[in-house]
Design goal:
Blueprint: E1 2-4, E2 13-15, E3 22-28, E4 32-38, E5 43-44, E6 63-64, E7 71-76, H1 85-96, E8 108-113, H2 115-131, E9 150-155, E10 163-168, H3 187-199, H4 210-218, H5 227-231, H6 238-251, H7 264-273, E11 276-282, E12 293-297, H8 308-321
């Protein structure tokens, strides 16, 4: 069953155990799981025909709300210190959404979910684990929260027969305001260097030849995966990275060591530093005029709750005190971590 509310209300529909859809695991992060919505043998209602949801066609096939079409379902995990979906969504609507053109954001629509529907989705996770399919081993045993009453329907940026798709996290596109003078690593590279050394991890080699191109385009230290090399000539949406860079700087001009981490502007900056850049590339992208779709998503509210504020401050202080920004750390990082654009070693 699917119920609806009037236009303009916060919740657009409710999904319960009787909703005639199947969910299939797609991906997950530390706080959320994303599902593909399958409509096998079902048909979508007309755009303006929401009232028929839950009924059937003349052939007895269940109708599905058209607002589920072209969407993925994002649900919160049952883990500590994760912001409730409604709170995060309200922050998104008030502070994030007005900052960007609508076409540059992964649309997210609030929906209501019942415990029965969540159990149905948890059963899908169990199937993934038992069949050893897509769910990573380290994520096994972590269920969705049955006390969470809301989920998000988000723009489907996955690949299909006409498109390839990929994603990356831009992270910090401007230097940390707390970084010491003479820094040779940006905040992202400093943190990666520290983690690599402390975890004894050999870093993945990223092609440095891409960096001068991107630095010229957006004026920020940024490392990116190889696929961009193929799409740069047609990469018409770099303005979005420039805008993201400028907003990161605007929302946090002082840095974590000099700001109240519960300040809404700072929390917005932290959300902008942890978002995901999604690309949907037509198979014929090399043809002139074919548009590459680029959107920002995962713009969740970042609060200092649960010790996260202390962790942010401690991490920043460690990067400064141990020389990770200035590349003067006692145990040198691998060579691959010495090619940040700030160092000039990127030819």
């Amino acid at each position: 069953m699917v119920t609806t509310r009037s236009k303009g209300a916060e919740t657009i529909l409710t999904l319960d155990q009787d909703t005639p859809i199947r969910v299939r695991y797609h991906a997950e992060g530390a706080a959320n799981v994303v599902f593909i919505i399958n409509s096998i043998r079902n048909v979508f209602s007309n755009d303006d025909d929401y009232g028929t949801v839950g009924t059937t066609t003349d052939d007895g096939i269940p109708r599905i709300d058209v607002r589920l079409k072209g969407k993925l379902l994002r649900l919160r995990k049952d883990v500590p210190s994760v912001t409730p979906v409604l709170d995060s969504h309200r922050h998104y609507e008030q502070y994030i959404e007005p900052l960007f053109p609508a076409e540059s954001l992964v649309e997210q629509l609030l929906c209501k979910i019942t415990p029965g529907f969540v159990r149905k989705c948890n059963a899908a996770l169990r199937t993934e684990e038992e069949a050893l399919m897509k769910r990573p081993k380290k994520r096994h045993g972590v269920d969705l929260s049955e006390t969470e009453c809301h989920g998000l329907l988000i723009t489907d940026m996955t690949c299909d027969e006409k498109h390839a798709s990929t994603e990356f996290k831009p992270k910090w596109l401007v230097q940390s305001p707390s970084a010491p003078p003479g820094s040779k690593r940006c905040r992202t590279c400093a943190l990666r260097a520290m983690r690599d050394v402390k975890s004894n991890i050999k870093p993945t080699v990223i092609r440095p030849s891409l960096e001068p191109i991107l630095i010229k385009a957006i004026g920020a230290p940024l490392k990116i995966v190889d696929f961009v090399n193929q799409t740069l000539p047609y990469f018409h949406n770099l303005y979005l990275l420039r805008l993201l860079r400028d907003l990161q700087a605007e929302k946090d001009p002082k840095g974590i060591l000099k700001v109240d981490s519960s300040d809404v502007e700072f929390m917005t900056a932290m959300a902008l530093r942890d978002c995901t850049f999604f690309l949907k590339i037509p198979n014929q992208y090399e043809k002139s005029g074919v548009r590459i779709e680029a959107r920002l998503g995962d713009l969740d509210l970042k609060t200092p709750d649960g010790g996260k504020g202390d962790y942010w401050r401690e991490t920043e202080q460690q990067l400064i005190n141990e020389g990770w920004y200035t590349a003067t750390e006692k145990t040198p990082a691998p060579k691959e971590r010495c090619t940040c654009l700030l160092s000039g070693n990127h030819d």
